[in-house]
Amino acid sequence: MTVNDAEPLLRLRGIGKSFGPVRALSDIDLDIPPGQVTALVGDNGAGKSTLIKTVSGIWEPSHGEMFWQGKQVHFHSPREASDNGIATVYQDLALCDNLDIVQNMLLGHEVRTRTGLLDEITMEQTAKRTLADLRVTTVRNIRQPVGSLSGGQRQSIAVAKAVMLDAKLVIMDEPTAALGVSQTALILELIGRLSNRGIAVLVISHNLTDVFEVADRVAVLYLGRLATSGPISDYTTDSAVHWITTGTGPAAKGAVPQTTEG
Amino acid sequence: MTSVNQEPASQEPASQESAELMTSPDASADLLANSMGEYLRIIGKRIRSGESGALPVIVGLVAIVIFFQVKNSLFLSAGNLVNLMGQSVFIITLGMAEIFVLLLGDIDLAAGFTAGCGAVIALWMMALGDPWWISVLAALAATAAYGALQGLVVAKLRLPSFVVTLAGQLGLSGLILYLISATGGIGTGGTIQLHNSIINDIESGQLSPAATWIVMMVIVALAGLFIFYGDYRRRSSGLVAPPVSITLAKIAAMVVAAIIVVLVANTNRGSALVAISGMPWAVLVMLAILFLWTIVLGRTRFGRYVYAIGGNAEAARRAGINLVRIRTIAFALCGLTAGLTGIIWASYLGSISSNIPGGQNVLNAVAAAVIGGASLFGGRGKMLHAVLGGLVVGVINNGLQLLGLTASAQLMWTALVLLAAVIVDRLTRRGGTAT
């Protein structure tokens, strides 16, 4: 499939997922190298969401093997995946609107003092430092409830939460789908900053402009199969569209030259 | 555990001028403000947009009090106020019980009869000769266990708490009848009398005036130090903290409130022959429960998780929170607090009987919590809300009685106030930002 110089962070071999008679994924071989942004693209129903849910421990694969940092793993729950350093930022963000930024960022990982009560000071410092590291500076006050934030700010908080828990791979499902132009730029910048820090990012996107702006590698799913994957420089927008819509490369003989523009 | 990414903050998040003042009903104004002026501006802005937290209840409470005082000058007499406190305490504590489950988006309709059953168990054991504290502990253990059972059924089987606890209400109202008849000679005529002076004194005993001063001042001093030290530590750690002036203003307001309460409680409310003055024990018991549960909700992991589940259960689950466990504990604490309510109630009545209005009490308690500012849909509410709302319900009942109106009028007026509170709440939320 792909040629790697280094050991990939995550290696998928023959991953398949069936729901009863429906095969949502079959025979996926994919390597996610460390410190790079891999874009996962494909048409609706191509299996993108199924694949990331399998990797992040929500569903167990029906077939195939998964290697994390060289060792075979089986995640039975999202918690197991996140304990291993795979953090997933879901489309619905999984934030509690009634809790403030600090409370959301440390949810499930609260720090306590010797008395057993919550150590708000340490938690606020931790959250503040992470946000400053990622240069998330648009929030006015980290004690404001997440419900009062804009879409981009919420997305940034969700990413910062993943980073704070020492994620080595951050999976993002359509991070820019609901955002305006400036907010999208903010998130793309944040994704770039993650990879600069050596964190691998696997990002699902429908927006090829975003993909070409931020990704180092691209993987195209077509009807539950991996159609192609490789460095982003091997593709153009046109060839990527061709792969997404037909599952074959533009040069392939016999391929139907239908360029449904997206 | 949480490990932090090395290197300290390279630069403070500075550029904040452009960000507009984000306000929300849940954000504490004193944490958003940097100065007294800004604090007042935020409060002013919230009042204009109708989102002011506890303020509507307090304004409403003051308005109702003025109304009754104008109608009947006895209303604000020391005697009536202390009487009112006694009548309100068990609505308040049952409201605090409901807060635990309301925060999850649940409800416990059985709590009124849980309280009744707790009282029956305690009074029965005392009548059999057990010491009062063993009887009370046994009753509380039973009510907490029952609450936990309800919570387990709701959480494990994913059933709506409304239906499960409705079944509980029916079942426990039957259980009370059964228990009282099972006591044989003790529960004559469907009533068990309370013969223990300590339990009796919760509602009818009081501290001496000197002790009232000492106890209240110690409470205020401790609370003041606690607040001041907490804000001081936040400030010195460079965290979001209210300015000193607001911290001091808060403490001053608390001191003034405490002095007023002491002065009222220490005024002679007896006759010329038998002087009665001092703080009723019931108020202290209520304050102790308020303090304890406020810490549990605000400063423990369990409390944080209750808010998280009420806000977004799926997010809580993904954060690794055990929903079944937290729900079960919340229902158990609701049952425990209901048990305490039962003891206070038995103290108020001097007995416990099989025809207690457990259904109406629980609805009053839910009304109190909602009037006070808790949400029926989960995620929003504090123990203090049950106190404020319970006072509103208590003031209405007491005031209308004083005006000579019947139970029918009391019920209908309470209904209107509840409706008004929910409407204010809804309008507030609609005006709120971005949710």
State the main characteristics.
heterodimer; A: alpha/beta; Rossmann fold; six-stranded mixed sheet; four-stranded antiparallel sheet; 8 helices; 31% helix; globular; disordered C terminus; B: mainly alpha; ABC transporter involved in vitamin B12 uptake, BtuC; 2 domains; 2 strands; 70% helix
How would you characterize the overall build of this protein?
The complex is a heterodimer of chains A (262) and B (435). With 262 residues, chain A is α/β, with parallel strands linked by helices. Chain A has one domain (10-246): P-loop containing nucleotide triphosphate hydrolases (Rossmann fold), CATH 3.40.50. Helices cover 31% and strands 24% of the residues of chain A. Chain A is built from eight helices and ten strands. The longest helix of chain A is centred in the C-terminal third of the chain and has 16 residues, at 181-196. Chain B contains 17 helices and two strands. The two termini of chain B are 31 Å apart. The interface between A and B is large, with 54 and 52 residues.
Structure in a nutshell:
The complex is a heterodimer of chains A (262) and B (435). Chain A has a single domain (10-246), classed as P-loop containing nucleotide triphosphate hydrolases (Rossmann fold). In chain A, 31% of the residues lie in helices and 24% in strands.
